[in-house]
Amino acid sequence: QFFPTARHGEVMNMVNAKYGSVPGLKAYTHVSDQFAPFACQSIPATVSEAPYILDGLLMNEVGRHVREQYADTAGFTDHLFGASSLLGYNLVLRIRDLPSKRLYVFNPDTTPRELRKLVGGKAREDLIVANWPDIFRCAATMTAGK
Length: 146
Prior knowledge:
Elements: E1 2-4, E2 24-31, E3 37-44, H1 50-58, E4 68-71, H2 78-86, E5 90-93, E6 103-105, E7 119-122, H3 125-130, H4 132-144
Parallel strand pairs: 4-5, 6-7
Antiparallel strand pairs: 1-2, 2-3
């Protein structure tokens, strides 16, 4: 949700693709499948919503353990997709212009026929393995909330 404000804040030269140069902020709200909000945070109108998805899941004050999170295109980044999986969340995305995106998979031969047009290549498994301790440490830090 976008809320216009009376004047620009500290970042006056920022333009939002959706709201233009109108000053304001967004309220990012997590809503359960029973339509009850369980996390809400104010974020700048000019930033991606993606990092705030994990904030709401990991630091909600009602103690809800969410297994599945839905988000639209504004909530999509490769990093969020990977981190969500590491943290035990099933991230379900509605991605605009999906045919123009490319997915990288571990074994292209086992990709379902319907999805093969989206495969851009093979994931660099060696890079993931080489950086696994840092990736794991990052996920543990997020879980601990520090």
